[in-house]
Structure formats: C-alpha cells, structure tokens
Amino acid sequence: MSLFQALPGGKYSVAGPLGHLWDFYARFFVCRNALQKSGDEAVRLVKALNNNVALAKDVDGREIVVTGKGIAFNIKPGQEIDKKRVSKVFVLQTDDLARKMGDLLTNIRMECAEIVDEIVRYAKDRLNGKMSDYIYLALTDHISFAFDRYEKGYRVKNVILWEIKKFYKEEYAVGLKALEIIKNKTGVAFDEDEAGFIALHFVNSKMETYEMDTTIKMTKMVQDILDIVKYHFKMTFDEDSLNFIRFLTHLKFFAQRTLMHESFESENDDLFLIIRNKYPEEYKCVEKIAKYVAKGYNHEITNDEKVYLMLHMARIVRRNH
C-alpha cells in the first residue's frame, strides 16, 4: 500500500484561474491496489456514482470510494465488487466525507491523479522547504479543469506570468516540467501560461503550511499597503478592475516573500532608475511602503521589488484618472 495523499482536517478552498471554487472538508488516503492485497475480505457496493466510481463498504463497515474501469457496471447495491477491477481506494474519516469525495471524483479526470502524483514527486525533489499536502487536491482539480478548457478552445492568459518567472524561478521550472509530463502522458501541449498557473499552486502550497498568525500578518500587510496607496494618491480603488486584481495578487505574494524574508538581488538597477524617473509619485509612494515594511517587519525591499510595485501602481492610478 503506497501513500498518495493525506489532507489535514479543516476547510479548504481552491480557486482556479476562472474562479473554479469549491470547499472541501477531508482527510483521505489514496491507496493503490489496496484491495488486491486484502485477501478474501469482501467490499460491497453501496452506490454506483458512475461505471468507474463507486461508493462501497469495506469489511470493517467503513464507507470508502473505489475507482476502476467498469467497476460498478451491472452490479447492484449489496453485491460484492470485483477487486481485480479496482485501481484506487479512497479511505476517509467519515461516511459523509466518503460521499463528498465520491462526488468530487465523478467530476474530474481520473488520469489527472497519476499525472499529479508524478509532478508532485518531481517537485518534492526539486523544491526545498515544507509543502502542504493540499497540493494534490488543488493541482488535480486545476489540471482536470485545464483539460476541459483546452478541449473547448479556451485560453486563459496568465496576467502575472512575468512576475512568476522573476520571483518564483524554481516553482516555474516545476511548472515547465509539469507541462512536459502532461504532454508525454496525454499528448496535450499547454503553453507557458499554464506553467505559471501550476507554479502558483506550489507557491500557495508553502503558504498553506503557515500558522494562522502568519496568515493574519499577511492579510494585515496587504491591507496596510493598499491604504498607503489609497491615501497617497487620494483615490478610491475600482476593486472589479483587472489592474486592481493584478495588484492585489502581487501584494499577496509580496507579503509572503516579506514574511519569509526572501529577497532577490537587483539585476537591473538601470531599469529601476528609469522607472523611478518616469513615475516620481509612484516612487514616493513606494518609499512609504518600504519604510512601513522595514519598521514593521524588519525587511528591506529590493529595487526589483520596488520596480514591480511602481508599475502596478502606475496602471491603477493612471487608468483610474
């Protein structure tokens, strides 16, 4: 029995690039070939969710979810499931969770689980630091949804791809490797925008390991910076605008980097000087933010960080006016 995923209990929300949002309360294990190794113990059907996914009861009376090609075809509740057809078993803490997990599995592509397993194993070898197990759930959902978009011809542009490449180089490299794995297994070739979305899941995975106190600090920092910008420019944000959403997303990851005391050496001070001279008011505002961060969080903002902050502010301020 090999462990695929373990999720801490509690509420979890996943938001995809098109707002694909759902809540999930779960702790589950995915066990490959578990039933084949369980001897003569019978597993009986409770409810067929479709031909390939079924709610069942094991020998201990626990409700579990089993998947496999044709696993529920032509059998009735109470009848024994052919264990040779079972490819995966989901064992959950409560019967209610088993039903929720079953409903979820009927709406995602099962091959995504295998793809995600390989991607995460690669990421764990490449990325240092603690990684939340939520990554399995979030990434499986995301990639399944990406396949749906691909088949319908929808392309979602990653509006912060340039920032991902700059500030999350290792996670982006994992994203590119993920595209390679997906292409090798399915023949589907996603573009680099998708690599950026996948990279953000691994960035978020680090954030999911934080204590609540850290989450509160991040939220406060983002709100304080928004207040600094708002009062400096004496403006009201259009919170539905794409530019504001981009800025808010940038601040979220900026706050994460600040609290983790991650810093990047400035690679192009000439660019910083150009942007500073082009946007003098934005530069004054950035210096206020730098003082706030230095005083409140003992962290120095690099010139590269200042460049991105100024550019985001310039978009918001000039579009607003």
General description of the model:
The protein has 321 residues and is α+β, with helices and mostly antiparallel strands. The chain folds into 3 domains: 33-105, CAT RNA-binding domain (Transcription Regulation, Sacy, Chain A), CATH 2.30.24.10; 111-207, PRD domain (PTS-regulatory domain, PRD), CATH 1.10.1790; 212-320, PTS-regulatory domain, PRD (Orthogonal Bundle). Helices cover 54% and strands 12% of the residues. The chain contains 11 helices and 7 strands. The protein has helices at residues 95-105, 111-126, 134-152, 161-167, 169-186, 192-207, 212-233, 242-259, 269-278, 280-297, 303-320, and strands at residues 11-15, 21-25, 28-32, 44-50, 53-57, 63-67, 88-92. A 5-stranded antiparallel β-sheet has the order 3-7-6-5-4, covered by helices on one side. Strand 4 (44-50) and strand 5 form a beta hairpin. Helix 7 (212-233) packs antiparallel against helix 10 (280-297).
Measured between the Cα atoms of the first and last residue, the distance is 61 Å
Radius of gyration: 23 Å
CATH topology of the largest domain: PTS-regulatory domain, PRD
Sheet with most strands: 5 strands, antiparallel
For the secondary structure, the number of strands is 7
Can you write the helix and strand succession as a string? EEEEEEEHHHHHHHHHHH
Low-confidence stretches: 1-40
Give the strand content: 5-15%
- Please give the domain count: 3
So, the CATH homologous superfamily of the largest domain? PRD domain
What is the name of the CATH class of the largest domain? Mainly Alpha
Query: What would you say the CATH architecture of the largest domain is?
Result: Orthogonal Bundle
Number of helices: 11
Biggest sheet strand order reads 3-7-6-5-4
What gross morphology would you assign?
elongated
